[in-house]
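[audit] Reproducing an earlier prediction to check determinism. Same input, same settings, fresh worker. If the tokens differ from the archived copy the diff job will pick it up downstream; this log only records the rerun itself.
[audit] input (849 residues):
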Amino acid sequence: MNLGNSRGSTRDLIHLLESASGWTISYSNRLCMQDDLQLSGTPQSVLEHLNDIFAACPFAYIIRDNRIILRPMDPAEVTYTVSGFVRDKTTGESLPAANIYNPSTGSGTVSNNYGFFSLSLSPGRHRLQASYVGFLNESVEFEIKRDTVLHFDLLGSLLLKEVSVKGDRPREIIHTTKMGATLIPVEEIRQTPALLGETDLVKNIQMLPGIQGGSEGFSGLYVRGGGPDQNLILLDDVPVYNIGHLLGFFSIFNADAVKHVAVHKGSFPARYGGRLSSVIDIRMFEGNTEKIKGTVNLGLLSSGVSLDGPVIKDQSGFAISFRRTYIDAIAGLVQRNNDETTNYYFFDFNAKYNHTINPKNRLYFNTYWGRDKYFTTYNFQPLDNESPSRQSSINDENNAGWGNFVGALRWNYIISPKLFSNLTATYSDYRFFIGVKRSNQINNAYDTFEQRYVSGIRDYGVKIDMDYYPSNNHLVKFGGGAIRHDFNPGIDIIQRSLSTAEPVDTTLGKINLTGGEFHAYLEDEWTIREKLRINAGLRGVVFTGESKMYHSLEPRLALSYELRPDITLRGAYSGMSQFIHLVSSSNVTLPTDLWLPVTDRIAPMSSSQVNIGGDIYLNPQRSYNLNIDFYYKELNDLLHYKESTGFFDYSTNWEDKLTKGYGDSYGMEVLLSKSGGKLTGWLGYTLAKTTNTFPELNNGKSFAARYDRRHAANLSLNYQFTKRTDAGLMWQYGSGTPITLPSEKYYAPDYPHYNATNGSGYSENAKEINGFRMPAFHRMDIGFNFSKERRRTSRIWSVGVINVYGRQNPFLLYFASESDDEPGSSSRNLKQLSLFPFPIPYVKYTLKF
């Protein structure tokens, strides 16, 4: 309702509201009555206009039929709402999961994923403080007389050129929230040693207790005994299904494009679902609305550039980053003029745009596009003796590739100072292919053959999330959404073309599967007497595929109790379900693994997890922190290929190739961190056991899960020599992972009625799945960063060594036959393949402007 800039007394304006709205407004004479007031010229509801009229005299109201009845509020009832955003002072970027609190009482709230917060305060003078990992705290003192908008603009503590301080200023290396989420500062990730200079946030996540990467050098994530498909990896709310470049040696996430990383593995808020083991919530930079900034990185393997800045100053901004390897360019020069060349490249591109329509409405658009391709080309000229001048080159090729494309469009709307909404539409597409091309030329006639294997998954989604702040220390989240999954479990396309006949196009194994996933959730988080914090929630999911519909109710509960100012206890229970599976036929997570849905014959996976733990500050300065967690997890309806089958077996239906089972995982995780002084860092230790049982495998006996690792220890240290020089050290240890090896080999001759004898050979037999263990894994990496500030730019030289002492860690164990001294005799020896058996130096140059 727009009443223009109407002026008059309180009674006059109320009569005007009644005439314009059709409502009858009754009010007490004890309310503040004034002779001269002016209404807002912007469109507002009746209640918003009434709030302006009685701004100096808070009221309560009830609605009966077509009547609004106003009465004065008792002093104890009067509260006002302070709401706003927590932002980076230098860029205008919003800061998610920032703490906003009263320093004297400790009461407060946490900003959401878009930096928004809301607090209810009584009239009078108040002091609020905002804090965020890697930033200096900001404190504001103010007097509140009405609902107030207040923004906190924090200055990055890692960006200060010169600060005079007395004593040591704590510097968060890794931070665990009261509800158990682990926050990793991206600036710290950029400073750690990196293979070939490729900064990789997934490698830093693997350093956390309870998380490992499987084989050395790979970017897989195995969390508390779960597989890589059991991790919900979100890039700005969009699920990502493959996170590896270079067959998994590097992750697809460019650290220059990432603002915030949160890891959930012990407790899961109800707003997350669809996976069993963890949630990795990654948020990209939104775009600087103040000034143009950029970063250029030059490494041994790849180079990249990032740029962000305003489109309309203080209203809209963009952030883009591009990274590409130049392995193909180097290999092309080395193999120039060769008939056979082998090559590989990858690239990734991130872009985000944000636009503030008005203080209550904001739009975001973000996208990621990345691809890997490996190919071998055979170049030759077929002979044409009759007409040499008509000879032409034939380019045969073997190739393989995979890639992701994701995008999201979201709308933030502040419905009221206490109610925040976020509407998001998402798209995710993952594709993998293997191909071969062959050409023949006979008497100027061509015969071409092409075979291409394609697999992937595509998602279309929409969801709405609401944040409601009914009072201080009380936050209610609720929402729902839907996702349509399109599965392609594998298509083998064969195309043959003869110059003298019609082309032949054959498709094998073409299966198009779809699934609809619908969810709704309610999550309530509140604090009782400043000591006990509770997050209770319920998530409901319905999945429709073939003729059968599955549903699941997933209760979630997390508790945090402050026993003393320096001791906090935590407990959590999470019920989870998963309606899609990643089925692998190898011991390494590869892009060839297939995503498959639940069907009438394949039930969804489910899990139940209990987590008990706590945090202890070991010194008064709170720079030493000890975090301990104990957990137990049950896993049901796991999938595994049956023995002697795989996804290239076309003789049976894909569902017949699989068998289901169950598993359990339990363990203890310890994390000791130091966040003050020149030497900072943390030490993590995990003691765990994970077993699987499949009635149709291993004679029905339980066996160790693929990456069951009994002991794991990780050390990460950083030393600040001067303002310009720092060093980082990372050391990892893990006991041997399980492996299946043959325990016997026997002669297998041809059947007597066969004429040929060259088919005779040997067969091997493995008596137990994962019955052996690889040797222990350990490795040390070290790196140095040398920075220099100039007037408008800064540069960083990063140098270091990966695998400092040249440990030959096992990637693969295999048997090999060797000839003995005696004629006709041989012996079989177990051998080891190592991917990085020697120290690997790296150098990287970074320019910021």
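[audit] rerun output stored. Observation attached for the diff report: The first strand starts at residue 7 and ends at 8.
[audit] end
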